[in-house]
Write the structure tokens for this entry.
Amino acid sequence: SDHTLDYPKSPQHIDWQAHYPGVDPGKKPEYADIGCGFGGLSIALAPLFPDSLILGMEIRVQVSQYVKDRITALRTANTGDPKAHYQNVSIVRANAMKFLPNYFEKASLSALFFLFPDPHFKVRKHKARIISPTLLAEYAFVLRPGGIVYTITDVKDLHDWMRTHLENFPLFEPVSEEELRVEGKGEVVDAVYTSTEEGKKVERNNGEKWLACFRRIEVPRV
Ligand code: SAM
């Protein structure tokens, strides 16, 4: 349970400098890795976007501490590298299904990532899934128009669930992998497929991976 977790009152109450000591004060996270697990994606994104801030969110205490330590070690090992300095990646222990707008300002994110989220197979557990109409309203709020939601899973039923909910939400439109590659987001797509611990496990087991991406649009679809 997370009832003991403290939440920031608002994004303005967060000391991002403490998270990203080596970057310009005033910068705010632009890429959010929701349920980041051991942090493979967040860490892969850091050198791809050396001038942007990346934030992983993870609910498990030990796992979030592990990612914190991993980032600290990478910062130490790469001091002085302007492209891979890892000053631009951080992690918070948080329940991302609660108070997401307490972390991110309206229209502040360029991308939200949901990589191999917990499937919650049983129908009565579906309400625990990280993609739902209520939560999609929050995701639309924190994403800037043009921002991308990336989802990937090895569970076909969960893929259909996420895709259907996103398709039915008026502020998102589907965007194909090909379009994203044409737009120059190929390295991000590759990282979505291969950078995380869960993604690697699926590969080892020769599992299939289902990708679904959506763009936050400005004018609601009718
Ligand atoms: N994205 C990672 C990857 O691909 O390796 C981790 C995938 S793992 C199956 C799902 C992760 O989401 C777990 O680490 C779990 O603790 C985390 N998680 C589940 N619900 C969460 C929530 N409400 N807020 C933050 N993290 C959550």
About this structure: The first strand starts at residue 29 and ends at 34. The chain has one domain: 11-216.
